[in-house]
Amino acid sequence: MTAAHYIGGRWVSGDSADCITVYDPSLGEPFAELTAATPSQVDQAIAAARQALPAWRNSSASQRAAYLKGFAEQIELRREALIALQMQNNGKPRHEAVVDIDDAIATFSYYAGLAERLDDLQDREVLLSVPGFTAHTRFEAVGVVGLIVPWNFPLVTSAWKLAPALATGCTVVIKPSEITPLIEQAYGHIADALGLPAGVLNIVGGKAETGAALSNHPGIDKLSFTGSNAVGSQVMSSSAAHCRPVTLELGGKSAILVFDDCDLDQAVEWIVAGICWNAGQMCSATSRLLVQDSIADALILRLKSAFEKLRLGNPLNGEVDMGPLTSQAQWSKVNTYFAIARTEGLQCVTGGDVLQDPGWFVQPTIYADVPPDSRLWTEEIFAPVLCTRRFASEAEALALANDSRFGLVATVVSADLVRAKRVADALDVGHVWINSVQAVFVETSWGGTKGSGIGRELGPWGLSAYQSVKHVTRCLG
Ligand code: NAD
């Protein structure tokens, strides 16, 4: 068994009896194995992070910025290996794996830039309305943070947490997903290459038991979690039990609203990207299409043709538009939704089934005129499954879009920019795109309203998630 866990600057094997098998989803075959970390190894990782905290948090922010730049450079050096691993383990088409690498690099570079400015922002005086006092502001690291991440964008979701946490002076224990446990190991190898002080970054791999050992541990000061609502709720409970802060990036059931003045071909491109990128395994997938009555038939016909033209296949065998789903569990779950659609009598425009051997592929699927109480309309499926509904007016479109327990993102497609802006402002979500693919910039925030989570990542908000604000007030008298 390989030494898969990075604790206190050393690579160690897992002590658990739990074996993690790593699969190539295009073949449905295993290609690596590792043993999970035990709760006692999680203890050790947290103790190492605690020991490293005073020196790291008191280092100058410009020193930390230099390490972050190093992370960006080292990811670049490992580009090809990381692209290959994401293609093999996630089933990502090459062009998508490339975007993930670029995103992780951009994230470390951006937070290096913010860290460089942190020393200047420290101890700034506050203008007080009452004479006789002075006050200044300090931004301090929250402390030892636990980071729990999912499998769909492993390099990226980790970077979004790791880079700002390290920038502020936090030390971290990260728990990758058991489905993609090898990808984040790159961050441990990079820490070695850069000579990052031991204990600043720790990686413990494992399943739910390892994650729970981290999120329930009394020795962390904050937990940042990205994953499902079911687990997010447990993580929130453990944070509540310890009365400590938590950031949650959870699921979505996002809408794309298409108005009748749009360019239909352009709309098709954005709709397909919004539901088929990463085989629909995106928290931000725009899985509910709301289309204005007068263009609905024409748009759905074009979508059917576009879905049926998508090239599915093993990304390692050449350029494809869509790979498999990343895990067998996910494939089985989607198969269950196809069965529910049949039971509910939904109108299937194209797809509607899984593909048999080899691998865990599903057909890109469209259901038309899906009732708002259908489970396929309300629940996150996490697959290339698009549900559509027609609307007659802007007010109806908005009401349908906002009628969800989630509120992660939305897309508005319209040639009328005044209307598009008005609709964007009225959508109860964390991020809206107008006439665009889901372009994510490190300078803008990521996070949702309602059941999609608590807090924001990226931008300066992602940095403040790991900072504690302190004021020091002095009486001059
Ligand atoms: P998941 O909740 O099953 O697992 C996420 C992580 O939590 C994994 O590392 C897992 O091992 C760990 N875990 C499992 N049980 C745990 C427990 N009891 N205590 C602590 N940790 C535990 O989610 P997933 O299937 O890996 O990811 C898919 C979900 O993630 C989807 O719902 C998706 O919408 C969401 N997601 C959200 C965002 C966002 O930014 N909002 C981004 C990506 C994915």
Automatic annotation (TrEMBL):
Molecular function (Gene Ontology), one example: oxidoreductase activity, acting on the aldehyde or oxo group of donors, NAD or NADP as acceptor
Limits of the Aldehyde dehydrogenase domain: 11-472
Residues of the active site: E249
A Pfam family reported for this protein in Swiss-Prot or TrEMBL: Aldedh
Source taxon at top rank: Bacteria
Keyword Transport listed: no
Keyword NAD: yes
Keywords: NAD, Oxidoreductase
PROSITE patterns: ALDEHYDE_DEHYDR_GLU
InterPro entries xref list: Ald_DH/histidinol_DH, Ald_DH_C, Ald_DH_CS_GLU, Ald_DH_N, Aldehyde_DH_dom
Record family assignment: Belongs to the aldehyde dehydrogenase family.
Protein name: Aldehyde dehydrogenase family protein
